[in-house]
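Postdoc handover notes: sequence design on the structure in folder B. Input tokens:
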């Protein structure tokens, strides 16, 4: 690793490089130099992101745009170039590496410790949405085609089920039934996009709480990170993925399902932050689909975990046997809970949107 780091324009010489964070996709390391500077090194998962050049161009375009529009210092991710002036390194070991400035004096949460932190993460993603409202979407590469195409996720699930390459289908019959009974819902938002009822926006597409940095002292948002999936998408999906992860009362891989619930007060806190930051820029049809976005993103994520389980855990990094199955079960438990709470979810959005306008 130190050899790889030596090819980036760091301030000082790297003296340590340790695995860092809880991402499921890339490999992330915290780097410290003898000049006392810290950096984030990432090995990009090029099995998942097939077009690394396009991906890194996206990140440069978005971060340059944010900086040009006033997001300086800790308010935007900063790529550190290689000594050759490139945005990333294609190393001799075959890996693709990038380095970011470490965002100092910040916190990155796996769980909402309180409602206010979760509200502030809503502000961060709402601002992100608003800041990129005029961004030329056509300049972005689609880094993972059909990423939040829930219909297509169902197609891939059916393929994995038919193949059942690891003979795991038998043990997950209740989960399979859960997926199949909700297929009608899968295409609902995309159909609205296709009919012109919903606009396409530049969205983040991975709005987990641990993709937001808050200032450690003020607990106010600094910036949004993990820009690998910034692509044209739906506002409801970005809102929904935040709720999926952050409004749950338990971690994504909780094994005791009695602890897993979609908290309406966390939901309200997030919706409040998100809408206060971007509310006026959303169309009425988008507002109405925010609760549906939460259900769909949670269903889709559960389907993805289950598909990966059926396929032998090749996509999401696992840390124990059946990890993806545990993750899938929390997601379906949350979907069922959201189905019961959908009227309340819609009322909250409508009430907050009225107050914001
Ligand atoms: P993944 O795609 O694998 O989720 P992320 O880009 O989200 O990777 O990074 C993983 C974790 O590393 C984040 O959740 C955060 O804790 C930390 N991290 C990433 N970039 C930075 C940064 N620039 N400064 C500080 N911490 C960071
Ligand atoms: C992955 O990269 P990370 O850990 O932030 C995944 C998301 C899933 C999430 C589930 C590129 O996010 O789509 O919602 O895991 N990212 C990709 O925790 O597939
Ligand atoms: Mg992440």
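Designed sequence:
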């Amino acid at each position: 690793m130190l050899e790889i780091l030596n090819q980036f324009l760091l301030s000082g010489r790297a003296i340590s490089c340790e695995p860092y964070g809880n991402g499921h996709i890339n490999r992330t390391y915290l780097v410290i130099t003898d000049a006392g500077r810290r950096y984030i090194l990432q090995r990009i998962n090029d099995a998942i992101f097939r077009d690394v050049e396009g991906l890194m161009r996206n990140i440069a375009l978005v971060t340059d745009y944010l900086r040009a529009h006033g997001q300086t210092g800790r308010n935007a991710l900063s790529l550190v170039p290689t000594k050759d002036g490139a945005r990333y390194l294609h190393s001799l070991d075959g890996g693709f590496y990038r380095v970011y400035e470490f965002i100092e004096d910040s916190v990155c949460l796996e769980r909402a410790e309180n409602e206010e932190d979760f509200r502030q993460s809503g502000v961060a993603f709402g601002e992100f949405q608003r800041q990129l409202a005029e961004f030329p979407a056509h300049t972005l590469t689609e880094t993972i085609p059909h990423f939040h195409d829930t219909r297509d996720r169902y197609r891939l699930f059916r393929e994995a089920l038919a193949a059942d390459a690891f003979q795991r289908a038998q043990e997950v019959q209740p989960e399979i039934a859960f997926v199949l009974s909700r297929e009608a819902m899968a295409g609902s938002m995309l159909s609205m996009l296709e009919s012109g009822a919903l606009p396409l926006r530049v969205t983040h597409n991975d709005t987990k709480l641990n993709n937001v940095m808050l200032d450690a002292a003020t607990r106010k948002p600094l910036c949004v990170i993990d820009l690998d999936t910034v692509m044209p998408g739906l506002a409801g999906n970005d809102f929904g993925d935040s709720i999926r992860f952050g409004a749950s009362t338990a971690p994504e891989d909780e094994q005791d399902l009695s602890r897993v619930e979609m908290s309406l007060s966390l939901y309200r806190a997030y919706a409040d932050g998100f809408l206060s930051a971007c509310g006026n820029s959303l169309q009425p049809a988008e507002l109405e689909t925010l609760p549906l976005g939460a259900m769909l993103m949670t269903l889709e994520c559960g389907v993805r975990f289950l598909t990966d389980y059926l396929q032998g855990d090749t996509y999401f990094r696992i840390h124990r046997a059946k990890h993806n199955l545990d993750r899938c079960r929390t997601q379906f438990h949350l979907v069922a809970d959201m189905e019961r709470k959908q009227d309340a979810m819609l009322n909250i959005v409508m009430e907050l949107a009225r107050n914001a306008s």
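Context for whoever picks this up: Residues 20-21, 23, 25-26, 28, 40, 77, 100, 102-103, 108, 210-211, 225-226, 228 surround adenosine-5'-diphosphate (ligand 1) (CB under 6 Å). Don't rerun without checking with the PI first.
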